[in-house]
Amino acid sequence: MPSLHPSIDNGITKGDPNFSGGKLYCRCADNKVEVTLSANVLHNHACGCSKCWKPRGALFSVVGVIPVDKLSVTANAQKLRIIDSSAAIQRNACKECGVHLFGRIVNDHPFKGLDFVHTELSSERGWQEPQFAAFVSSIIEQGFDPKGMDDVRGKFREVGLQTYDVLSPPLMDAIATYTAQKSGKPHL
Amino acid sequence: MPSLHPSIDNGITKGDPNFSGGKLYCRCADNKVEVTLSANVLHNHACGCSKCWKPRGALFSVVGVIPVDKLSVTANAQKLRIIDSSAAIQRNACKECGVHLFGRIVNDHPFKGLDFVHTELSSERGWQEPQFAAFVSSIIEQGFDPKGMDDVRGKFREVGLQTYDVLSPPLMDAIATYTAQKSGKPHL
Questions:
Q1: In the predicted model, what is the mean pLDDT of residues A92-104?
Q2: Residue A44: closest CA among A134, A152, A112, A170
Q3: Under an 8 A CB cutoff, do B146 and A186 touch?
Q4: Is A102 helix (H, G, I), strand (E, B) or coil?
Q5: Nearest CB to A149 within list B142, B149, B173
Q6: Mutate to test the interface with A, among B150, B153, B172 (most CBs of A within 10 A)
Q7: Active site residue B49
Q8: CB–CB of A141 and B185 under 8 A?
C-alpha cells in the first residue's frame, strides 16, 4: 500500500476545537517564509487533484481553508511566487523549496474569501484533522494504477474518512447554490 | 417531499438478470418513434443533470447505457432530431412530443460506444433497476432549494441508492483511466 499522506497513513489525530491558530513555514533551511494563521482551519481534507502541493511520496495533499483576513505573511514574503496566475486558486509557493504556503482566489468563485493552506507546515498541534477525501479518482490521471483504487478507498474508510470523486456533498451543494444565485434562479 | 422520479418514489423494482431487451416508444399518440434494444441496459441510474430528459414533475432523470450495436430505430426515425449537436452526448428527441429516445456519443469520450436510454419509455418489465444517484447537487443549479438536499439524499438512501455529486466511483475511475491513457501515463 503506497502512502496516502503522512497524516493519514497511521490513523488520524483529532484536532483541538479550541485551537486558535499558529504559524506555517516553508521547508528552506534558513530565511523561511512564515505565514501566521490567527484561527484554526475549516474543511480540512485529503485532495487527490494534481495541483495541490503534497509531500514527496504521498498520493494525496491535505488542505484546509481559512478566511483571508485570518492569514498574513509575516516573514520572507519576497520568496513567494504565484505558480499559475490563471488557475482559480493562485498557489503562492516558496521560490526556493517549492512548498505552497497558501492558495488564494482572486476571481469570482464560490469559495472566494477563503485561503487554502497545509497545516503540516506548522509544528503546532491542534489543527483540525482531515474530515474527508476529495477528488480520489483524480490520482489515476496522475499515473496511479486503477487496480489499486479499492485499496485506496478502503484505507480512507479504515481511518474514518468518506471518499468523494469531487468535494463533499455540503461543499458541492454550496457550489451549486452559488451557481444558481449567479444565474438568478427563482428559489434563491 | 417532491418526486425524485416515478420509478424511485415508491421504492425500486428489481430488474430481471435474464431480461434480453425490448422496445422504447416516444409519447406521441400515433406514429410513435420506436427504438428496439436487443439487450438489457447497464449502469442504470438517477441523474440530476440539466440535460437528461426527465418526466414532468420529477427532479431526476433515470438513464442507462447500452452498446450502440444493440440499439436500432425501428419506426418513425424521421421524427427524431438532435437537441444539441455540440453536446458530448447527442440527445435524439422526438420533434413532436419532446421525449429523448437515445443519446449518442460521436466524439472521443470515455463512454463512446454506449448509447444513453430511458427504459421508462418501454412497457416491458425486467429492465435493470436504478443502481445509484448521480449529479445530485446539480438539481440546485436548476432551482431546487438547497435546504431540501438532506431530504433528497435521505430518500435515495431509504430506497437503497448511494448518492454522488458526479458519477459512481467505478465510472469516475473509468473516466480517469481514459484520461490517463490519452495522456500516455507510464502505469497504463
A1: 97
A2: A134
A3: no
A4: strand
A5: B173
A6: B172
A7: yes
A8: yes
Closest to A63 (Cα-Cα) out of A75, A49, A77, A83: A49
Averaged pLDDT of chain B:
95
Question: How confident is the model over B62-82, as a mean pLDDT?
Answer: 98
For residue B172, which residues of chain A lie inside 8 Å, CB to CB? 137, 165
Cell of B90: 447527442
Provide the mean pLDDT of chain A: 95
- Give catalytic status of residue B52 as yes or no: yes
B133-183 tens-digit pLDDT: 999 999 999 999 999 999 999 999 999 999 999 999 999 999 999 999 998
Chain B environment of A150 (Cβ under 8 Å): none
pLDDT tens profile A6-43? 999 999 999 999 999 999 999 999 999 999 999 999 99
Percent of chain A at pLDDT > 90 equals 90
A117 touches A102 (CB < 8 A)? yes
Nearest CA in chain B to A168: B165
Probe site for chain B from A177, A178, A179, A183 (most B CB atoms < 10 A):
A177
Question: Distance between CA atoms of B170 and B153, rounded to whole angstroms?
Answer: 20
On whether the CB atoms of residues A79 and A33 are closer than 8 A, the answer is yes
Q: What are the φ/ψ torsions at residue A71 (nearest 5 degrees)? A: -120, 130
Cβ proximity of A166 and B123 under 8 Å: no
Strands B61-67, B71-75: pairing is unpaired
Asked if the model's pLDDT at residue B43 lies above 80, the reply is yes
Task: Provide the terminal-to-terminal Cα distance of chain A, rounded to the nearest Å.
Answer: 46
Q: Contact at 8 Å (CB) between A129 and A43?
A: no
CA distance A143 to B182: 11
* Catalytic-role residue among B26, B28, B49, B94: B49
| Interface contact B163-A169, CB threshold 8 A | yes
Which residues of B fall within a CB distance of 8 Å from A143?
180, 185-188
Q: Which three cell numbers stand for residue A148?
A: 489499486
CB-closest option in B146, B173, B188 to A137: B173
